[in-house]
């Protein structure tokens, strides 16, 4: 006899529901009632796990950040070439999007436009920015780029642009259907080739 799949714990259902709704509709536009209905839990159950919507938003962003970091770690573990490791940013976010089913842009960039500076979710926005900047600088240095700081800023600009292109495409039918991440990766690879201290390394 086949057993029915176990029902996830209430906290997990709340985070999954919040993640789906906050990402698709926006944090401000998503009320607690919608999350409760999607998760199939009572208000009392939610408040047993989270002090309120702000705490739920913070937990949603924290879980998303951790999943993104682990995906990037996974891709890096598969790469040996220093330049390929630097370009792993674009491959990692493509893998993350395929797993999470993300049809829109970056959840952290979107949240940054909605959350005030004193919101409990704001530290996760800062953590995402630190992860990107610090890791890109380290990878650029290991790849032998002349100015790792400039390299990190340039790749981050291409990364943000690609993710914002997804957001624009989600709200503007008829845009060209090319892959923004693939284009950003090609541009990054070409730029990196001009910045190596030893051009033969590329």
UniProtKB/TrEMBL annotation:
<feature type="domain" description="HTH tetR-type">
    <location>
        <begin position="8"/>
        <end position="68"/>
    </location>
</feature>
<feature type="DNA-binding region" description="H-T-H motif">
    <location>
        <begin position="31"/>
        <end position="50"/>
    </location>
</feature>
<dbReference type="Pfam" id="PF00440">
    <property type="entry name" value="TetR_N"/>
</dbReference>
<dbReference type="InterPro" id="IPR001647">
    <property type="entry name" value="HTH_TetR"/>
</dbReference>
<protein>
    <submittedName>
        <fullName>TetR family transcriptional regulator</fullName>
    </submittedName>
</protein>
<dbReference type="InterPro" id="IPR036271">
    <property type="entry name" value="Tet_transcr_reg_TetR-rel_C_sf"/>
</dbReference>
<dbReference type="InterPro" id="IPR009057">
    <property type="entry name" value="Homeodomain-like_sf"/>
</dbReference>
<keyword id="KW-0238">DNA-binding</keyword>
<keyword id="KW-0805">Transcription regulation</keyword>
<keyword id="KW-0804">Transcription</keyword>
<dbReference type="GO" id="GO:0003677">
    <property type="term" value="F:DNA binding"/>
</dbReference>
